[in-house]
């Protein structure tokens, strides 16, 4: 009887081992020269102009390659995009050939083995050298290039010229001046927030941390704490009351500024159309976000989207060709015209800068030096666990002291990286 | 199986031999088991299986090999302070919800039996509408009602700009109200049907003996409805412990600094947000075990008091 039990247990273990959770088969790509090329692009809030440019590119591409059809699917930019991409990695049959993706998602997707290495294709591409090494680095994991940077987004300080003029304020040149101006606005105009800040606005807080010499991977260092303090000090009743502002996301701060409820806000070049559609239109100007030192610029986050080719693509050359068309100078320029997307090709950016003054503060921010999140799957974890928002919110709601909250966040970051 | 020989001349089917009697219930269970086992058994098996593997996105899509790590996921979980604090507040929140749902449901069930025709129809209709509203829709509508700047509640109370989702307990209160609003109709309908089934003579006798309304509720209705109450309590415990949509939607995934997170939201964020499918499954297993224990306690309590389900 005892033997019987052992045998049963053994069998059970064997069955368990044999039934390890399934893993997607490693898809073998192909290089067919005809058929349908599937393309995934992000569905922006204002898609029509983007769609028009893309249709133009498709027409050009289909004319040049007979027997090829391009089919575009617009996917959401919300966290649901992760599900779409995971689905594509898990089931190559429903995966696209070319896909647009956010550069902060890169590491996770690279670790999942979803995208093809484009290093050789880009160095052979005539326009490849027009992309700065910094930018290419933001699409590189372990020496492999998993995409071509398509456009970048940079945030700078929007402020209301009418309010500043009325109160006799000058555009701030340091964080101290910024805080003083914000408090003055709130004191004189109680219906308004001085500067719109948000407890869930990670990319609004990071420039302050970076400016102080801090870093995401060392949130409990003295420098990081100084930066966190500079940002969380703005969550007070005399600027942006925690009751309202602790739960704001970046998007909500954009709304506050666009709806005329805030005199300042850290918005991106891509938010221009939203602001121009509201009561703040025509009554604002943009300057680079000042740093702690007078006259300095706080490092901005270099966000943006890449175009990549899926590893499972059955039309590798065609996919690369279409990607190069979209990422080439002609279409980058057109996309700027349609969407305000800042080109990644240096020559295209220079050309646009000469013709559009609005871009100057953003370009000044870029040339002052930008920063990026860690290119590691850990970042997706840190982002999803809301490590930085939780830290900010605990401080501004006084659930924890700055020291406690930053130490806790640093522990969570280390855990995400798998460090002790 | 041995054939049971029925003696000639006996017309009524007699109790069969012990063995056949033991098999009969299983035979009757077979159709239900054939449907339920694959539907419930397989996911639970997979859940348990995933929880003992290092299974993240890279493993799912084949970037890295899947490895068996035994109980490491459970160890991570048990050493995680956040898990314990979320577990504690989930238990607390669920208990409060169960009590509130039962109180509201039972009160309205009694009101229904007393009310005239039109008020009864109106109340039933309102309750059915709340019951029929999808959790997502209901949560969104309640969120609009309590919006800081544009919400009806703030306008009526004249406290424009008050953020109902700032303080931890106020937030739990608003979300709890939404959950109760969604779940009281079931309790109300079940208890109302139960009360209707109590012969009027019983309550008449009670009132003739001078029992007050309150006394007759606690001494007559409650004991007679005990089996029904047990069922709605178990159902409510299970529902409220698994609460997800209302918290996820109304507090934007757990509220300020995650202060309003509950176990199910935490499991979802771990499994799908952070792509830690193995660890997320471990949370799921722990939840399943807790619910099993609760259910077992109830069944035991029932047997002890001699009640039948």
UniProtKB/TrEMBL annotation, chain A:
<feature type="signal peptide">
    <location>
        <begin position="1"/>
        <end position="20"/>
    </location>
</feature>
<dbReference type="GO" id="GO:0015768">
    <property type="term" value="P:maltose transport"/>
</dbReference>
<protein>
    <submittedName>
        <fullName>ABC transporter substrate-binding protein</fullName>
    </submittedName>
</protein>
<dbReference type="Pfam" id="PF13416">
    <property type="entry name" value="SBP_bac_8"/>
</dbReference>
<dbReference type="GO" id="GO:0042956">
    <property type="term" value="P:maltodextrin transmembrane transport"/>
</dbReference>
<dbReference type="GO" id="GO:1901982">
    <property type="term" value="F:maltose binding"/>
</dbReference>
<dbReference type="GO" id="GO:0055052">
    <property type="term" value="C:ATP-binding cassette (ABC) transporter complex, substrate-binding subunit-containing"/>
</dbReference>
<keyword id="KW-0732">Signal</keyword>
<comment type="similarity">
    <text>Belongs to the bacterial solute-binding protein 1 family.</text>
</comment>
<keyword id="KW-0813">Transport</keyword>
<dbReference type="InterPro" id="IPR006059">
    <property type="entry name" value="SBP"/>
</dbReference>
TrEMBL record, chain B:
<keyword id="KW-0812">Transmembrane</keyword>
<dbReference type="InterPro" id="IPR000515">
    <property type="entry name" value="MetI-like"/>
</dbReference>
<comment type="similarity">
    <text>Belongs to the binding-protein-dependent transport system permease family.</text>
</comment>
<feature type="domain" description="ABC transmembrane type-1">
    <location>
        <begin position="87"/>
        <end position="298"/>
    </location>
</feature>
<keyword id="KW-0762">Sugar transport</keyword>
<feature type="transmembrane region" description="Helical">
    <location>
        <begin position="277"/>
        <end position="299"/>
    </location>
</feature>
<dbReference type="GO" id="GO:0005886">
    <property type="term" value="C:plasma membrane"/>
</dbReference>
<feature type="transmembrane region" description="Helical">
    <location>
        <begin position="26"/>
        <end position="45"/>
    </location>
</feature>
<dbReference type="Pfam" id="PF00528">
    <property type="entry name" value="BPD_transp_1"/>
</dbReference>
<dbReference type="GO" id="GO:0055085">
    <property type="term" value="P:transmembrane transport"/>
</dbReference>
<feature type="transmembrane region" description="Helical">
    <location>
        <begin position="216"/>
        <end position="238"/>
    </location>
</feature>
<dbReference type="InterPro" id="IPR050809">
    <property type="entry name" value="UgpAE/MalFG_permease"/>
</dbReference>
<feature type="transmembrane region" description="Helical">
    <location>
        <begin position="169"/>
        <end position="195"/>
    </location>
</feature>
<keyword id="KW-1133">Transmembrane helix</keyword>
<dbReference type="InterPro" id="IPR035906">
    <property type="entry name" value="MetI-like_sf"/>
</dbReference>
<keyword id="KW-0813">Transport</keyword>
<keyword id="KW-0472">Membrane</keyword>
<feature type="transmembrane region" description="Helical">
    <location>
        <begin position="86"/>
        <end position="112"/>
    </location>
</feature>
<keyword id="KW-1003">Cell membrane</keyword>
<feature type="transmembrane region" description="Helical">
    <location>
        <begin position="121"/>
        <end position="145"/>
    </location>
</feature>
<protein>
    <submittedName>
        <fullName>Sugar transporter</fullName>
    </submittedName>
</protein>
């Amino acid at each position: 009887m005892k033997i019987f039990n052992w045998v049963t247990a053994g069998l059970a273990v064997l069955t368990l081992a044999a039934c390890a959770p399934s893993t997607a088969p490693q898809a073998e790509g192909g290089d067919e020269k005809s058929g349908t090329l599937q393309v995934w692009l992000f569905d922006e809030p204002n898609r029509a102009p983007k769609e028009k440019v893309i249709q133009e590119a498709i027409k050009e591409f289909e004319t040049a390659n007979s027997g090829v059809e391009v089919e575009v699917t617009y996917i959401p930019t919300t966290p649901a995009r992760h599900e779409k991409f995971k689905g594509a990695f898990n089931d190559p049959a429903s995966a696209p050939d070319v896909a647009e993706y956010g550069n902060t998602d890169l590491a996770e997707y690279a670790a999942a083995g979803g995208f093809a290495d484009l290093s050789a294709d880009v160095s052979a591409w005539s326009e490849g050298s027009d992309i700065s090494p910094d930018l290419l680095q933001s699409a590189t994991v372990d020496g492999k290039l998993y995409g071509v940077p398509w456009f970048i987004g940079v945030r700078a300080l929007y402020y209301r010229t009418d309010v500043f003029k009325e109160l006799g304020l000058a555009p701030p040149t340091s964080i101290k001046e910024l805080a003083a101006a914000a408090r003055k606005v709130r004191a004189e105009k109680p219906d308004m927030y001085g500067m719109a800040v948000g407890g869930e606005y990670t990319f609004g807080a990071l420039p302050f941390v970076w400016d102080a010499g801090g870093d995401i991977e060392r949130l409990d260092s003295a420098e990081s704490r100084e930066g966190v303090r500079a940002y969380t000090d703005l969550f007070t009743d005399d600027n942006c009351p925690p009751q309202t502002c602790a739960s704001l996301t970046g998007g909500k701060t954009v709304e506050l500024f666009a709806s005329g409820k805030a005199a300042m806000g850290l918005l991106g070049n891509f938010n221009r159309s939203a602001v121009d559609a509201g009561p703040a239109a025509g009554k604002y100007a943009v300057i680079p976000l000042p740093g702690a030192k007078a006259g300095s610029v706080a490092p901005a986050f270099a966000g943006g989207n890449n175009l990549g080719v899926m590893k499972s693509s059955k039309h590798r050359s065609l996919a690369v060709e279409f990607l190069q068309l979209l990422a080439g100078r002609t279409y980058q320029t057109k996309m700027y015209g349609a969407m305000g997307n800042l080109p990644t090709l240096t020559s295209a950016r220079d050309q646009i800068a000469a013709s559009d003054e609005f871009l100057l503060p953003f370009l000044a921010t870029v040339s002052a030096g930008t920063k990026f999140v860690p290119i590691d799957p850990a970042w997706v974890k840190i982002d999803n666990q809301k490590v930085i928002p939780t830290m900010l919110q605990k401080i501004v709601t006084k659930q924890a002291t700055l020291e406690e909250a930053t130490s806790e966040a640093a522990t969570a970051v280390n855990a995400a990286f798998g460090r002790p | 199986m041995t054939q049971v020989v029925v003696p000639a001349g006996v017309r009524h089917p007699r109790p069969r031999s012990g063995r056949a009697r033991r098999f009969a219930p299983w035979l009757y269970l077979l159709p239900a088991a054939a449907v339920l086992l694959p539907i419930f058994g397989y996911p639970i098996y997979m859940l348990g299986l995933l929880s003992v593997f290092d299974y993240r996105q890279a493993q799912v899509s084949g970037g890295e090999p899947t490895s068996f790590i035994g109980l490491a996921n459970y160890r991570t979980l048990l050493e995680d302070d956040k898990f314990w604090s979320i577990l504690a507040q989930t238990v607390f929140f669920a208990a409060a919800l169960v009590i509130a749902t039962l109180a509201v449901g039972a009160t309205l069930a009694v009101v229904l039996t007393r009310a005239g025709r039109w008020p009864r129809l109106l109340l039933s209709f309102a309750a059915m509408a709340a019951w029929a509203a999808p959790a997502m829709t209901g949560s969104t509508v309640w969120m609009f009602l309590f919006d800081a700047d544009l919400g009806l509640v703030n306008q009526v109370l004249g406290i424009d700009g008050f953020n109902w989702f700032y303080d931890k307990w106020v937030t739990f209160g608003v979300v709890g109200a939404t959950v109760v609003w969604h779940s009281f109709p079931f309790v109300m309908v079940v208890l109302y049907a139960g009360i209707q089934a109590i012969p009027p003579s019983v309550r008449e006798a009670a009132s003739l003996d001078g029992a007050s309304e309150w006394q007759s509720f606690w001494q007559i209705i409650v004991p007679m409805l005990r089996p029904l109450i047990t069922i709605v309590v178990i159902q409510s415990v299970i529902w409220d412990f698994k609460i997800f949509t209302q918290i996820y939607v109304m507090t934007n995934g757990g509220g300020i600094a995650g202060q309003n997170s509950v176990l199910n939201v935490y499991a979802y964020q771990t499994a799908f947000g952070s792509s830690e499918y193995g660890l997320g499954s471990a949370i799921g297993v722990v939840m399943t075990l807790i619910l099993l224990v609760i259910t077992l306690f109830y069944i035991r309590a029932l047997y002890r008091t001699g009640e039948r389900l």
